[in-house]
Amino acid sequence: MFCYQCEQTMRTDTLDGCATDKGVCGKDANTSDLQDILIYQIKGIAQYAQLARSIGVIDRAVDDFIQYGFFTTLTNVNFTATRFVNMVQEAARIRDSIKAQYAAAATAQGKPIEEPTGPAQFQPAADMDSILKQESVAVVNKDHELVGEDVNGLRVLITYGMKGVCAYSHHARMLGYQEDEIDAEVERILAYLTTNPTDIEDLLTQALSAGHLNLKVMDLLDRANNGTFGDQEITQVRVTPVAGKAILVSGHDLHDLAQILEQTKDQGINVYTHGEMLPAHAYPGLKKYSHLVGNFGGAWQDQQREFANFPGAIILTSNCIIEPAKIYRQRIFTTGPVGWPGVRHIDNGNYAPLIQAAKALPGFKQDEEAKTITTGFGHKTVLGVADKVVDAVKSGAIEHFFVIGGCDGAKPGRNYYTELADKTPSNTIMLTLGCAKYRFNQNEYGDIGGIPRLLDMGQCNDAHSAIKVAAALANAFECGVNDLPLSLMISWFEQKATAVLLSMLASGVKGIHLGPSLPPYLTPNLLAVLSERFDLRVNHSPAEDLQTALGRA
Ligand code: FS2
Ligand code: SF4
């Protein structure tokens, strides 16, 4: 195996990447190799899908599979090797299907039939052992000695960024939101990667194209969430338990949560959110369920301790799952792209097994004293008080805005974000999003003239909201985004954060602080280019970075 897609990858003097029999996340070598093969195959499907689309053939099931398949390979999503064997076989069937549709349409239109090379021609063997022997064509850095680390790093940056794009797009599709323009661009970029590109400038351009695409996808997901469940509202969320039977829903997928809420109503079960599901409380179409009682726990890396203390059933709807401890292994479920060997998986939208498990468990014996945190500051909420915000900036009451958010992680050094938030001057506003917020979202920061100093904009995909607010402020002040008193301190962990970073770069945002450590595939040369063109910054100490951000360094 070789994998270096996330921040917690093994780093030694001689090797940057997880390359033993198991990754730091717990992903075993077979699963990792099968994921590489699946990614390789999906790029081959994209080659045919792009050809088919060029002559008017669109198969939504193919587009669905491309994006769902990419999603399953994100960090902390799916660890079940047998599911990947099935997906590898399904990928071959889907490739054959779109290939046949393309050939039939080309023949009917009297056009020549093209035969793409590379991944499009891959034929998987019949069983896991034999498939694993085919892995050498698919390993993510297979050409690094041939093309050099910079070219390899950019190819990987695009592939990993596209994993984030596909994950967000899949969530939107779950709510019935899909756009052909997006699917076409996904397939174009994946097919581009099969051409073995080596031109650095071209690769950089395509990386920014992936960022532009992700902007469209985050916008689509925002419309999907708001269109389905109503616009986010400022909402107090209880973070202490209520007596009664309980289900804990983790991950990002609001469609799954809605189904669970519908199927548990009048069943005497309280539903809690966990991790990235916290912002769900702000949507009218979800908060209307009185048995959605609160949020339990914090970010993903604390789940073994927190799930052990949750006396009900638990379900993961997307990343991040980590190895379930024995104490709760019998009461945790997965759904959608998520999987862990031996953990019960629900794939038909019928949550009866989860509900039965919750009923059989004790639940919380008594109420704990009520404590709340606030969420619901999506772009519509914030821009609803834009006049007040603009006046506060003009009067000097607000000196600076910080976006402090992204993905949290398990490695030491993450307290940077707690310290940073705590040290921000009292005349500054913090916008936060993603699971990185749990580093400081229970702290009290007060308000500026009634505007809370900490505004939770939502999930990591709600980086879209932060970009929208920045654009609106720039408009109000008749300046560019980079002229605003605004600093972005982005916490990187996995591939959704990679997609978000590319989106911010594609939006022309400069001076982003990225940390706590940098992606290993950003070589020193690539970092130098990004620093020169985008003023991309690495983290120093919170105090130093604050001084820089405030222009006092
Ligand atoms: Fe957090 Fe994990 Fe949101 Fe990331 S729950 S690190 O995948 O996507 O952010
Ligand atoms: Fe290592 Fe991260 Fe890959 Fe897991 S996802 S194998 S921790 S680089």
How would you describe the overall organization of this protein?
The chain is an alpha/beta fold. The chain has 3 domains: 29-228, Substrate Binding Domain Of Dnak, Chain:A, Domain 2 (Up-down Bundle); 235-360, Rossmann fold, CATH 3.40.50.2030; 381-549, 3-Layer(aba) Sandwich (Rossmann fold). It contains 20 helices and 16 strands. It has helices spanning 29-54, 60-72, 81-108, 128-132, 144-147, 149-174, 180-193, 200-229, 254-264, 284-287, 303-308, 326-329, 352-360, 379-384, 386-395, 415-423, 463-476, 495-506, 524-534, 542-549; strands spanning 235-238, 245-250, 269-273, 292-295, 313-316, 332-335, 344-346, 372-375, 400-406, 428-432, 447-448, 451-452, 454-456, 486-491, 513-515, 537-538. A 6-stranded parallel sheet has the order 4-3-2-5-6-7, with helices on one face. Strands 13-10-9-14-15-16 form a 6-stranded parallel sheet, covered by helices on one side. The longest helix is centred in the middle third of the chain and has 30 residues, at 200-229. The protein is globular, with a radius of gyration of 23 Å. The protein starts with 28 loop residues before the first helix and ends with a helix. The mean pLDDT is 96. It binds FE-S-O hybrid cluster (FS2) and iron/sulfur cluster. Iron/sulfur cluster binds next to loops. The site of FE-S-O hybrid cluster has 15 residues, from loops.
